[in-house]
Design goal:
heterodimer; A: alpha+beta; 3 domains; four-stranded antiparallel β-sheet; B: alpha/beta; Rossmann fold; seven-stranded mixed β-sheet
C-alpha cells in the first residue's frame, strides 16, 4: 500500500459511512418511541452513561448506533456539549421517589413493605420452559402512588449509621472542572453516575469477590419516578420541570469507628443512576462504600477502594474512545519504535 | 432444552458432580473444583446448591428449599418450583419429611436425621479469601495447614472489639484438619454443624467449588482457647407468632420499635400446629 491510498481518504471515508448506514437498514423504519418502549433498559443505560435524561434522544442514538450502547451514549455526551448549564436542580431524596419497586435484603419486613414490582430476577432463563408457560395473572396493585423512607432510616434513627463529614457547599461538577486529589465525594459520585456499567460492575466485583473487604447488605434498593424541581429564575420559587426514572441503592457495610466521637457505627454506601439499572446502582454503592471506608481492608490490593483507579477508569466514553484510537494511523510513532528496537537488538546481538 | 431430561442437567454433568461430591465427602472440609454448569437462574442465586441437588435427585425424593429459613421467600419458591418442574419430585415445607433440603443462610431448627441431606448455597467457598485473595497461595496455605493469617485477623478483632467482627460465615475447623467457610449461616448455626447425623453438602456455582461435611464429623469454630464462642442470643425476646424463645429470630423494625419472629417459618408453623392453632394461615405460604 502506498501513501496515495492513505491520502485518498475522503472518498474512502464517505463510502465507509455509507456502508455503515446500509448495514443498519431494517426491513421497516422503526420509530424512536417504539425503541423506548421495547428496549427501556438499553435506553436507560444510554441516558445514564450519556449523562443526559432524554428518552427521545436516547432512542434516536440507539437507532443511529445500531444498538452499540456505548456509541449511543457517546451521542448524548456530544449533544450535552451543545447545551448550556443552567444551574443546580433541587436535591432529590430517596424517600421522594414514587415507587415502582423497592426491596431490602437487610430486613424481612420493612416500613412500606417489600415491593417486588417489575423485575426479571425470578425469571427462569430458558427459551422454552414449562415455567414460562405460566398463565398471565392479573396484576392487582395499588392505584395510589407509593412513597416510603429508605429502610436504612431505622438504623439512622437509632444512631447506628456513620455519617461522612461534608465540607462541600455545593456538589462538584466534573463537567466544568476536574478535581485533583483528594477527590470530593460528590465528584466521585458524579463520575460513577456517568460511569460505564460494565466497568463499574467489574471493579465492584473485585471488591466483593476477594480483592477488598466489602460484603455489603442491600439496605434499600428502589426504582421509581423522581420529580425534578428547579428554582424559577425570576420568582426564585420551586417549579417542577419534569420527572425522571431513577434507581437508588443504599448498602450497609461493616462497622467502623466514627472519627467524630470514637463510637462504632455502620458504614453505608450510596448508588444512584438515571433510568432503571439495578446492577449499576448496586455496583456504585459498593464502590462508594469501598472508597470511603478503607479501615479494615486487607491484602493491600483493593483496587476498588482506590479513588484514583475509579475516577480515571470507569468512564465508558473516554475508555472506549481511547481504545479505538489505536485504529488511527501510528505510522510515525511505530517507525520511531522500530528504530529504537532495531538499535537495541543490534546492541544486544553484539 | 430437552424437556424429557430428568432433573435438567445431562447425565454426564450429574455424574461428574456426584464424583466430585464423593471426593468432597472423602476429604471433609476440602474444596473440590468442578466444572460448574450454567443454570437458568443467575450466578450467585444458588446455582452451586442447585447443581448438587439436581445431580442427587431421585424420583422418590422429597425436596424442601429455604432461604433465610423461610420456604415462602421469593428465591426459595423460585428454585423449588424449578426443581419440581424439571424432575417432578414431591415438594414439602416439612423439615422432617424432606429427603433433600436446599438452603441459603440457615440450618432448619428441627434436628436433622440420618439419611437426610442438607445442601448449602455458598457464595464464598474459600475461607482464606478474606486474608489472602490469591488462589495459588490459598492452596499452599491449606496444604501447609497454615491458617496463621486467620488467627491474626481473629487476634486483631479481639484486641480492638473484644471479639471477632465476623458475624456469619464464621471459619470452622473440620475434623482437626481443613479450615472451611460454612456459608453465610449465622453463628447460632455453627455449633449445629458439629456431629450432624445428616450429610452436609456445600456448592459454590460461581466459584466452581464443592465441599462436604460427612455425618458425625467434628466441626469447631476457629477461636482462642480462652475465649468463648458467642452465638447470637435473643435474651428476653420470643417469636411474636408462636412464642418460641430458643430459636433464631428475625427482627422486624417499625420506626424505633422492634418485633421478632422465627426465622425458620416451618418450625414456627409446626409449633402452632402442636399448640392446636389451626388457622390455616401459615407463614410459609
Amino acid at each position: 500500500m502506498s501513501y496515495v491510498a492513505i491520502k485518498g481518504g475522503i472518498e474512502a471515508i464517505k463510502s465507509s459511512k455509507e456502508l455503515f448506514r446500509r448495514l443498519l437498514q431494517g426491513t421497516e423504519p422503526m420509530a424512536a418511541k417504539d425503541v423506548s418502549r421495547r428496549f427501556p433498559f438499553a435506553c436507560d443505560r444510554i441516558m445514564a452513561e450519556g449523562a443526559l435524561y432524554s428518552e427521545k434522544l436516547a432512542a434516536r442514538a440507539m437507532l443511529r448506533s445500531g444498538g452499540d450502547l456505548l456509541e449511543a451514549a457517546f451521542y448524548l455526551r456530544a449533544h450535552r456539549s451543545t447545551c448550556r448549564r443552567l444551574g443546580e436542580a433541587e436535591p432529590v431524596a430517596g424517600g421522594e421517589l414514587r415507587l415502582l419497586r423497592r426491596i431490602s435484603s437487610a430486613f424481612k419486613d420493612i416500613e412500606g413493605g417489600q415491593i417486588l414490582g417489575p423485575s426479571c430476577d425470578y425469571v427462569i432463563r430458558l427459551f422454552r420452559s414449562r415455567l414460562q408457560q405460566e398463565k398471565s395473572s392479573p396484576v392487582t396493585g395499588e392505584a395510589d402512588p407509593i412513597y416510603s423512607p429508605s429502610a436504612v432510616e431505622s438504623l439512622r434513627q437509632r444512631d447506628q449509621v456513620l455519617v461522612l463529614g461534608n465540607r462541600e457547599k455545593s456538589p462538584f461538577d466534573v463537567t466544568r472542572s476536574f478535581p485533583l486529589p483528594p477527590y470530593p465525594r460528590s465528584a466521585l459520585m458524579q463520575v460513577m453516575a456517568r460511569g460505564e456499567s460494565g466497568s463499574m460492575l467489574a471493579f465492584a466485583y473485585t471488591s466483593m469477590r476477594g480483592y477488598g473487604d466489602v460484603h455489603p447488605t442491600i439496605g434499600d434498593l428502589r426504582i421509581g419516578m423522581a420529580e425534578i424541581c428547579f428554582a424559577h429564575p425570576f420568582t426564585g420559587g420551586k417549579v417542577k420541570i419534569g420527572e425522571i426514572r431513577a434507581t437508588f441503592c443504599e448498602t450497609v457495610g461493616s462497622f467502623q469507628r466514627d472519627p467524630r466521637d470514637g463510637r462504632l457505627r455502620l458504614s453505608t454506601g450510596f448508588g444512584f443512576c438515571l433510568g432503571h439499572n439495578e446492577t449499576r446502582a448496586i455496583s456504585m454503592s459498593i464502590l462508594d462504600l469501598a472508597m470511603h471506608h478503607r479501615g479494615y481492608s486487607v491484602g493491600g490490593m483493593d483496587i476498588a477502594a482506590n479513588p484514583e483507579i475509579v475516577i480515571h477508569h470507569i468512564d465508558g466514553i473516554e475508555s472506549m474512545g481511547f481504545t479505538n484510537h489505536f485504529k488511527l494511523p501510528h505510522y510515525v510513532t511505530f517507525q520511531a519504535d522500530l528504530h529504537v528496537y532495531e538499535n537495541a537488538r543490534k546492541e544486544s546481538d553484539e | 432444552m430437552n424437556e424429557s431430561v430428568f432433573a435438567f442437567m445431562d447425565e454426564d454433568a450429574k455424574k461428574e458432580i456426584r464424583r466430585t461430591l464423593l471426593k468432597a465427602v472423602a476429604i471433609p472440609g476440602y474444596t473440590v473444583p468442578f466444572a460448574s454448569r450454567e443454570m437458568p437462574v443467575a450466578r450467585g442465586w444458588g446455582t452451586g446448591g442447585l447443581q448438587i441437588t439436581l445431580s442427587l435427585l431421585l424420583k422418590r425424593d422429597c425436596i424442601k428449599v429455604i432461604d433465610q429459613g423461610c420456604d415462602g421467600s421469593v428465591n426459595a419458591v423460585n428454585i423449588r418450583d424449578f426443581i419440581a418442574s424439571v424432575s417432578g419430585v414431591k415438594q414439602t415445607f416439612s423439615t422432617r419429611e424432606a429427603t433433600i433440603i436446599q438452603t441459603r443462610h440457615r440450618i432448619p431448627e428441627h434436628k436433622l436425621a440420618e439419611g437426610q441431606i442438607l445442601v448449602f448455597q455458598v457464595p464464598y467457598p474459600e475461607v482464606l479469601t478474606t486474608v489472602e485473595p490469591d488462589t495459588e497461595k490459598q492452596k499452599q496455605m491449606h496444604a501447609d495447614s497454615d491458617y496463621s493469617k486467620l488467627w491474626v485477623l481473629l487476634y486483631e478483632d479481639t484486641s480492638q472489639f473484644g471479639d471477632s467482627r465476623i458475624s456469619n460465615r464464621y471459619p470452622v475447623e473440620v475434623e482437626d484438619h481443613y479450615v472451611m467457610d460454612p456459608s453465610p449461616i449465622p453463628k447460632y448455626d455453627i455449633p449445629r454443624l458439629n456431629n450432624s447425623p445428616a450429610l452436609l453438602l456445600f456448592g459454590a456455582g460461581r466459584e466452581k467449588r464443592i465441599y462436604a461435611i460427612p455425618p458425625y464429623t467434628k466441626v469447631e469454630p476457629l477461636k482462642f482457647s480462652d475465649r468463648p464462642f458467642k452465638v447470637e442470643t435473643f435474651a428476653g425476646k420470643r417469636c411474636g407468632r408462636c412464642g418460641a424463645d430458643n430459636v433464631f429470630l428475625d427482627e422486624v423494625r417499625q420506626g424505633t420499635t422492634s418485633l421478632y419472629f422465627c426465622s425458620d417459618t416451618e418450625y414456627c408453623d409446626s409449633i402452632l400446629t402442636e399448640q392446636g392453632d389451626v388457622t390455616g394461615n401459615t407463614e410459609s405460604e
